[in-house]
Amino acid sequence: MQVRVRAFARLREAIGGDLTLEVPEGATMSRLLAAVGETSEQAGEALFEESGELRGYVILMHNGRRVRRAEAGTLTLADGDEVALFPPVAGG
Amino acid sequence: MFGLTEDDFDVNAVIDRVRKPDMGALVTFLGTVRDDGGTEVMELEAYEEVAVRELETIRDEAFARYPIAAVEVIHRVGRLRVGENILLIVVGAGHRKEAFDACEYILERIKESVPIWKKEIGEGGERWVPGESHGGDA
Q1: Residue A88 to residues B13, B31, B60, B82: CA-CA distances in angstroms?
Q2: Half-sphere CA count of B47, side-chain side, radius 13 A
Q3: Global pTM value
Q4: Which of A56, A68, A91 sits opposite B116 (nearest CB)?
Q5: In terms of CB atoms within 10 Å, which end of chain B has fewer, N or C?
Q6: At B55, phi and psi to the nearest 5?
Q7: Residue A90 and residue B75: Cβ atoms within 8 Å?
Q8: What domain range is A7 assigned to?
Q9: PANTHER family under this entry (chain A) (predicted)?
């Protein structure tokens, strides 16, 4: 199935722009994040600590709704979903 | 108008659209691009669909919390020069206190939760302005 990944600010620069990734049916948010990290060394370093843990500043959204980090391992994605990755917001 | 735009706005025209005879106070916040030690240009990026929805949510929260009569919010995106307008908030109310309080509430909520980012570009290079908030549920 295909999932659209949108990234913003310095995460967009590290990942290189929006992506559409092919992931197995029933893949979780964590599985998708790993797949994004595998697209390039820069993307992997921007998203993950050396320990493999998701970096503290990464905010996750699934179809426009915030996802708590603790939910990433259990949230299953569906074909056509949109996942967004971004650092803390700085508007205003 | 309400939401995001690449174009500049006319502050007085927005105030005139909001004002009604029963309003004794129109509090306006105008945010501009600051020269932060050599900044020449600022690039503003947004997750547009989510940002507009979040601005609407914040407006609805302000109406629920304060006895105000009107809210306009315009946030610019794209490439801006030092001194240019970034954000306009206009709150109309019967009296000043609720208009000031609601305007500040809207501004703080925008900084906390609307997905917009700013990159400062100048002679010394470029930097993303650090976000002030993780949005509460990191």
Answers
A1: 33, 19, 23, 23
A2: 33
A3: 0.94
A4: A91
A5: N
A6: -60, -40
A7: no
A8: 2-86
A9: SULFUR CARRIER PROTEIN CYSO, SULFUR CARRIER PROTEIN SLR0821-RELATED
Q: Are A89 and B138 inside 8 Å of each other by CB?
A: no
Q: Say if B121 is an interface residue toward chain A (CB within 8 Å).
A: no
State the burial class of residue B24 (Cβ atoms within 10 Å of its Cβ: 0-12, 13-18, 19+). exposed
Interface of A with B (CB under 8 A): 6, 8-10, 12, 56-57, 59, 61, 64, 66, 68-69, 84, 86-92
Taking an 8 Å cut-off on Cβ atoms, the answer to whether B128 and A61 are in contact is no
Chain A residue whose CA is closest to B48: A64
DSSP B17: H
Domain assignment present for residue A11? The answer is yes
Taking the CA of residue A24 and the nearest CA in chain B, the distance in Å comes to 27
Q: How do beta strands A65-67 and A59-62 pair?
A: antiparallel
CATH for the stretch B3-128: 3.90.1170.40
What pLDDT, on a 0 to 100 scale, did the predictor assign at position B11?
A: 98
**How large is the ipTM?**
0.94
Q: Within a domain: residue A68?
A: yes
Domain count, chain A: 1
The Cα B115–Cα B134 span in angstroms is: 11
The distance in angstroms from the start CA to the end CA of chain A is 37
A7-62 pLDDT per residue, tens: 999 999 999 999 999 999 999 999 999 999 999 999 999 999 999 999 999 999 99
